[in-house]
Amino acid sequence: MQAKETLFADLVQGRAQQFQVPLYQRTYSWTEKQLGQLWSDVLEQAELLESGDGASTHFLGSVVLAPSLQNEATFPRWLVVDGQQRLTTLSLALAAIRDHVADARPDEAERIDEEYLINKRKSGSDHFRLLPTQADRPQFAAHVRGPLAPQAVGGNVAAAYGFFRRKLVEADDPAAPQDVFRIEQAITSRLTLVAVTAERGDNVHRIFESLNNTGLKLSQADLLRNYLFMRLPTRGEHVYETYWLPLQDSLSNDELEQLMWLQLVLDGDDRVRRQDLYAAQQHRFERGEVTEAEIEAYIRELHRNGALFRRLLHPGEEPDAAVRARLRRLDAWQAQVTYPALMLLLDRRERGELTSSEAARAMSYIESFLVRRMICRVPTNNLNRVFQSLPGQLPIDVPVADGLHRLLSADNRFWPDDRELRDKIGTAPFYLYGRWHQRTMVLQRLEESYEHPEPLDFGAAQLTIEHVLPQSAGDPWLRMLAEDAEAPDTAEDLHARLRHTLGNLTLTAVNSELSNHPFERKQGLLQGSHLEMNRRIAATARWGAREILARADELADRAIALWPAPLRGVGRAERSRDWQLAHRMLAALPHGTWTSYGDLAAFLGSGAQAVGSHLAHTPGVVNAYRVLTSEGKVSDGFQWSSPDDAGGDVRARLSGDGIRFTVNGAADPAQRLTADDLALLVAGGDDEQTDGAETAQRTAEGQGGQTRSHRFLRQLAADDSPVTVAAVRALLADWEELGGWIGHGAGHTTTSAFLMLGEAGAPGRGIWPLTLYPGGGRGGTAEVVFQHLAARKPFTDRTLRAELLRRLNELEGVAIPEGKLELRPAIRLSLLAKDHNRKLLTETLGWFRDRWESRDTL
After folding, report:
1. Any alpha helices (H) in 684-789, and if so which ranges?
2. What pTM was estimated for this model as a whole?
3. What secondary structure letter does DSSP report for 206?
4. Count of other CB atoms within 10 angstroms of residue 527
5. What pLDDT, in 10s, does the model give residues 480-501?
6. What are the residues whose beta carbons fall under 8 Å from the beta carbon of 279, sequence distance 6 or more?
7. Potential cystine with 358: which of 6, 247, 354, 709 (Cβ 3.0-4.6 Å)?
8. How many CA atoms does the CB half-sphere of 136 hold within 13 Å?
């Protein structure tokens, strides 16, 4: 047996060879969690390459190889005993890079293919340098052959390839540009592997067992603590009792590890990662002969900073009122990414280098930076780098608050100015971006700006976000919008464009009572509200497009006053950012789905014509041909942007992507993704519904849960027929007989019902297959939460989610396309009025319960 350190390029390049994953190995199983960590490591290495650091590498793990029985002297074949997940993932990443550059650099695409993916002069299965397990081969082979090859639907291999295609589109973002060939170099030449090569007769399974028999791992904090006190032979007891023990008692182990990492960042190490904390700090101590006094000084400083760090975790411990208010808002925003900057400010104040009022002013810039970017939908993918680099970049020749203002205003920070903020408040679908608690906080701050003489206690109030113009508009609302519509816009166009904008949103504790009623009914309820913004809405005679835009302008004035602007003179690129958002979304379109120009425009806060023009004149946009007219037809003005595609049959490409067509030649409307669906694709799993389920757990019993249950059924009765209400009541009873329980309300709507499994009152431990909502004037829906199930065992297994989809599609009137298996498609509750449908659904729920209860054995 031989073991040596190697690189992916050195392992697979050179003469023709093949790495075979034995059939007894498990199938490819990496999920977005592992892929995301790898991608983060790759981007870090790409950044180091850009900075000229040619020495650093990242250790990826081991690969255990043994000669195959089919080995030939002229064509070596190796069995992959361990490491198939790594090799498969890296190969898929390189296939995605090849396809990403294929239109612009076909020569480079061919090079990547021949160097890493194929044996050019071999055919059949020998054509592939990596041969996965038999179950994974069709998908893997399809992606290695290229994007025009017939693609196998679903599975982890396809999901991993799609992940890298999306991330490569994001890497083109001007806010955090990454050269794709540096990314390739990082994958092939900066990720190190230990290749263990067995000879014939070696017990490769024993090698595999010893490599993976790791037991309980020590945390980075544990390792560093042991290292420190091993080097305190005479002062250890005193230092432990005086500094370490109080620090350890005041912070959890995870918080202590985070503090140790922050201390390295404050000392100017702006590239260290938390998982490398121990090695980085050890390296700093061992540059010279470390003394006990130096170790003690480090722990003493850690102890001092621990008291400051607790103020970030528990803002109520901050003595100054202005600073405390800023910290509370950033804590509510869940802005842990800003901790390096906040620790810097608290540390400088502690040292007497700035006052509390200056610290509060500096924190107002941080808050504004986050809020303006969220409202203007600037991607968050570079925020870690922004704030981690601040301590080392802060100018020494200006006051701290002014220096921070200057740094955040730099060209590559993308802090939106007043003009862009005003534009996005009026046009962008605010409700579809950011996280639910961030959207709520923005509305709360806007309400506070009215300075009501008796301000509401937002902590005690249970407020949710209300659409004044409802999300599902009935005929009275559409007639009102028609009065404001100007050709070519229709009332439906205005509704799609304006319903999610900030000008149409408010906060209320009576969401269920407001529901989808006409504006006259809502006026009375809003007039009695304690919130000033609601009384102003109620004072308006009507609520159409003109009123929504006028309120957006008023809120923009307040937002500009609340959140300071960046310094003047910085570069701006908001338009390219908007289109980058569209590119990211289109790259994420699941197999078997399409969208329309109007849906994409509503998602972007743009116009359908602008979307069509951009797609027609921008080469290399992934899946641009899957944007159709609202009728599901290829636009008359459609043209291929790539010369290689010119003259290609669009419908044939769509069919190859799993799009079905109706008898009149239109794409199947069931496969269409709306603006709301698109938002889910880009945002991933917004935790709004998760939060709703956890709140449902807390209110499942007692008066609070009972009140929400009554609200749910009362609104259901207002929107649906008595037969449907009776069917829903029967379904809820069936679910409880199966051992489930019903939770009600929270998140963005107060009236909802979660079909829960798990321990009531234990937030985050349960699972739910369906969320039931009363209707928007057109009947209620049961939302199938595929997107959330994907992160909950055992339904992390895509085949189980696909089986749930198949069973649901057996209901008469249900035809959910497989392309929506990553989303949250809805079923009309009225379908449950048919006895056989409710029986089938109850059987499906029983199957779901059985799978969940046997999750540890699957």
Report:
1. 688-698, 702-719, 722-737, 786-789
2. 0.71
3. H
4. 12
5. 999 998 888 889 989 999 999 9
6. none
7. 354
8. 28
